[in-house]
Structure formats: structure tokens, C-alpha cells
Amino acid sequence: xxxxxxxxxxxxxxxxxxxxxxxxxxxxxxxxxxxxxxxxxxxxxxxxxxxxxxxxxxxxxxxxxxxxxxxxxxxxxxxxxxxxxxxxxxxxxxxxxxxxxxxxxxxxxxxxxxxxxxxxxxxxxxxxxxxxxxxxxxxxxxxxxxxxxxxxxxxxxxxxxxxxxxxxxxxxxxxxxxxxxxxxxxxxxxxxxxxxxxxxxxxxxxxxxxxxxxxxxxxxxxxxxxxxxxxxxxxxxxxxxxxxx
Length: 245
Description:
alpha/beta, five-stranded antiparallel beta sheet
């Protein structure tokens, strides 16, 4: 996860940075005041901010209130020497409140909590994905380092099986999802087509079929310089699909 660390005490800030880095996360910025923290969040767009409360210029609670106004605010974890700001922290939508010196286990637990979706968030995603709310989903939900991303189906070129996950190749890159190819094929049967036991494609991006040596075939996509192998089993159906496009 991408994290901003904000504390006006250099030693406290350095300690948090060290724990975060040792835990495999990325510190994208450090700040000494709430104002610096806001600037860092706007420029770096972190997943989480570790935020002190007693700071000059703008305290942590005021900073959290300003961050909440952003379209995509980071999760907020307060790390402070004072225990009487807990109610203010809750009102500022903090997901964690740690007392200094926060130990490594406490901090890791708070970071883990920040990656979990709450019931309201899950409900909103289900509304977007639910077949009862619309004829078919228009987005695919993927968990990334930025949180939950909704990838438009119309921007997806293909899906391929990648061990226990499915890889989604879309216009802005690649993400992994938990859906199976079979589930996707059944749900989007009018938009997706299976070309291999490990691959289904978005029909709208199908360009042409190429014959290789030794009776092998591969298909080309519109918009990207990539190819996928086509199995003999699915070749007749693909040829028919191409003729009907």
C-alpha cells in the first residue's frame, strides 16, 4: 500500500516510516503539518495516511476533515500521544487510533483493517454488479493497491486464467480478479467469446485470425499489438464469429 506519514516530531515520524517500510509497504511522502499532509495526499494519492494530532499550523483532526472533502480520500489512521481525541477521530472517519509509541503489531493490524471493505462499501459494489439491478454488469471489480477499482467492461480486451486468479487486460493495464472464466463467459455470453480453455476475449476488439506453422492459430486485437493462441477446439466457433462481425 502507498502511505503518507505525517508527524511534526522527526524521531516519531522516522520510526513510523521504518515500520511501514519493513512491513513491505511504500512511504510515498512525509509531512510535518496538516497543511503539508494535504498537499502530499493531493499529489501522491496514497491509500492510507498515518496522522499525528498535535501539530503546528493545522492539527490532525482539521487535516482529516479537509481530506474527507476530497473525491477519493485516503484511509486515516491517527497515531498520537493523547487519548482524549478519540471521539473527534471517529467524527473525522478515522479507521484507526493508535497511542504513541505504537508498536509494530498494532500498526500492522490497523493497516490490515484499512484494506477491508465495510458493509456499506460492499453493498454499493454489489449494486453496481448485481444482475437484478441491470441486465448485465457494466464493470468488473478488482482489488488493487489503490483499493477497489471498477474496470469498464467496454475497456477490457480479454481475460486469461493466471493460476488461481484471472488476469484482466484492459486499456489502462492489467489487474487480477477472483471471478472464474466460466462465470464471466456465462454472464457476458453476448460480449465475450472463449478462444482457449485459459482465455476469453471481448468480441468488439477481435480483429483477425492468423495461421501459424504446424497448424497453430492466433488472433489479433484492435487497438493493441498483442495476440492470443486459439485452440483447435474453439477454432470453428471463432471463424464463424469472425464471419458474423
